[in-house]
Amino acid sequence: MQEAARGSPVHAPHARRHGYALIVVLGALVILAFLASHSSKTLLAEHQSGRATQELQQRQALSMDAVTYVFDLALGAQTPARLPLPGHDDVWVELVDLGGLVDLRTARSGLAAQVIDALDLTADQERRFRNWQRASRDEADLSAFLRAIGGTPDQLVALSRVATLRSGRPGVAPQQAPQAVLDLFSEADGAGVPAAFTSQPLRTLRQVWVNRGGARWLAGEVRLADDSSGAWLWAP
């Protein structure tokens, strides 16, 4: 009692218990906040993954519909270059003659070099590409080609816009060449496709691109014909 009278603090047992309880409550709140944050991030990641899976499935289905529709036209070389896809709003099919693309296997070296420069390959990828050319590799499609030179999947879209492995041509057909191919030469000298790099179109070998809203993706490469000999040659 004398110490209390002089101003020395006296902590009652129930006050200490209240302090401990407050610490426990605050600790529990911190843990709950952490768990809630973690759970929210997990749910968001699962939602995004689910949407990505759904988008991929929708694209695969549209690609199948697009290629099937092109085959059903049975027009061969006369098939138009741009077609609305029946049964789908705001979905278009684009057909690109493979003769308008650069065949990385058979193109003249200067033409292939334009593609490599445009793709901005690493030094190691360029080295592996030159080795691939000299070895006359038998990769059947651009996906296999990228794996052979150590490329990455995200390079496939840019490569598909300008190149193929199926035309068998030393050059490109300017009238059938997509804008991405023509841009290779406009950036170089602005004079269009040089005569030395000009070849004939293929007509019945085409890329099939699907356009939906602002998205555009490659369904694959096909051979068109008036009879049943058409074939889906490659799907990325």
UniProtKB/TrEMBL annotation:
The chain crosses the membrane at residues 20-38. The keyword Transmembrane helix applies. Keywords: Membrane, Transmembrane, Transmembrane helix. This is General secretion pathway protein K. It comes from Roseobacter cerasinus.
